[in-house]
Design a protein that fits this description.
The longest helix is centred in the C-terminal third of the chain and has 16 residues. The radius of gyration is 16 Å and the shape is globular. The protein starts with a helix and ends with a helix. By secondary structure, it is an alpha/beta fold. The mean pLDDT is 89. It has a 5-stranded mixed β-sheet. Bound molecules: zinc ion (ZN). Zinc ion binds next to helix 6.
């Protein structure tokens, strides 16, 4: 009950921080040397149902040469968000998605919207502070689509993962 109530919150809470931290951990599983993205998907009741990170499709070898070739990689890679949605199927409806590593790209945003995800927590695209970054520039398109489609987007500053720890003195 408490978890499902937290799904409607517009700001991040303790559980959001925990799942975002988990998404960060999962991002390390990616073999992509340039971009490591992790995602955690909860169902509408707040139960975790899928984990994902960016990588080639199952059975396609993640070899370094392919990963180094940016153009080839972009054609072949499955994004973290896409992997969670493929795992969860219709259970993604009215759920929440945590994405660590990069702002959400428009190709993932359209799938998140179509899958019926209600709440998305991720890194806010900031093209001003990241000039020349295609991901930050196009991330703005994702946010505009989320807003229009009625998906709640909660920006999470990756720094919260550190600052909270310091406060506790652990
Ligand atoms: Zn994407």
């Amino acid at each position: 009950m408490r978890l499902s109530m937290s799904m409607k919150k517009k700001t991040a809470d303790k559980w959001d921080r925990r799942y975002f931290l988990l998404a960060k951990r999962i991002s390390f599983w990616s073999k992509d040397p340039k971009a490591k993205v992790g995602a955690v998907l909860l169902d509408k009741k707040g139960w975790p149902i899928a984990l994902g990170y960016n990588g080639f499709p199952a059975g396609v070898e993640d070899n370094v040469e392919k990963l180094k070739d940016g153009k080839l990689k972009n054609e072949m890679i499955v994004h973290a968000e896409q992997n969670t949605l493929l795992c969860s199927g219709s259970r993604a409806r009215r759920g929440a998605l945590y994405v660590y590593g990069k702002p959400i790209c428009p190709r993932c945003a359209v799938l998140i919207i179509q899958a019926g995800v209600a709440r998305v927590l991720g890194i806010k695209p900031d093209p001003e502070r990241n000039p020349g970054s295609h991901t930050h520039r196009t991330g703005k398109i994702s946010l505009a689509m989320f807003e229009e489609a009625g998906v709640d987007f909660v920006p999470i500053d990756p720094k919260i993962l550190k600052s909270r720890k310091r406060k506790r003195g652990t």
